[in-house]
Amino acid sequence: MNGLGNQILVVDMRGRDDQVLPEAAIALAADPATRFDQIMAIHDPKRDLTDAYVRILNCDGSEAQACGNGMRCVVQALAAETGKSLFTFQTIAGILTAQEHEDGLISVDMGEPIFDWQKIPLSEEFRDTRMIELQIGPIDAPVLHSPSVASMGNPHAIFWVDDDVWGYELDRFGPILEHHPLFPERANISIAQVTSRSEMTLRTWERGAGLTRACGSAACAAAVSAIRKRMTDRTVTVHVPGGPLVIEWLQNNHVVMTGPAEWEFSGALDPRTGAFTRDAEQSEAAQ
Ligand SMILES: N[C@@H](CCC[C@H](N)C(=O)O)C(=O)O
Questions:
Q1: CB 173 within 8 A of CB 143
Q2: 121 and 82 share one domain
Q3: pLDDT, tens digit, for every residue of 194-209?
Q4: Are residues 96 and 160 in the same domain?
Q5: pTM (2 decimals)?
Q6: Which atom of ligand 1 is nearest to the CA of 216?
Q7: How many domains does the chain have?
Q8: Which domain holds residue 267?
Q9: Are residues 129 and 228 in the same domain?
Q10: Are residues 69 and 167 in the same domain?
Q11: Shortest CA distance to 39 belongs to which of 69, 81, 16?
Q12: How high is the ipTM of this complex?
């Protein structure tokens, strides 16, 4: 599936007690036929009143605490299967609720943002008035500096720019910043330009996945950071390379993300090796 071009493999692990292995994820990501950004593995619920436990893997095999676009894909897959429209999920980071609307768009309550530096986590206290020294450009005139830092369950840094986000070499700066010592668990790195009280443009270099066409949790982290800085109102349309996501920061402190999800193909996966066989009718149609 995909969520605004964020490539997602939704893997049904219900009724099994094993897991998608990191090696399987790495093998699947290396195959052009199954290239993906994240795996959303749907497991049997571990708690009453939840529909499923969802485990999230990046294409480098690492486990993530949140994936907004992937959650919308899970909702669409389960809504098609069950006819339900309201869901409650458990992830490593906590409980999330989600809803598929009549128009097909999906809202996910991504929970409460975290700004406490120890919980993001950062290696030391950091205020966005302090520059992160970059290994590029002159030290007294860095290309990107003073990010907002926040967690949506997963760590994010958002660098604000006044001009076009496409003018920055995120593929070059992203890996340097992802591994900056300020981020002991690495971080998702975004460049954002606020264009009005209700809109911004955002590009993201994802921890464990690299450049993606959309990152839902980054859109949430960027929106709440812009709202805290009084740059926007509490509802923000975040334009990512794959299209728009609407982010609302509710008075109860929860962040709700709304956007689409799209089915692409299906097949059978060996969760130990990553061997994948596309469903027969789809293979024939592709020939
Ligand atoms: N694409 C995602 C984020 C996936 C996890 C991230 N790369 C991490 O490691 O934290 C989204 O839509 O939120």
A1: yes
A2: no
A3: 999 999 999 999 999 9
A4: no
A5: 0.95
A6: 12
A7: 2
A8: 2-110+261-278
A9: yes
A10: no
A11: 69
A12: 0.99
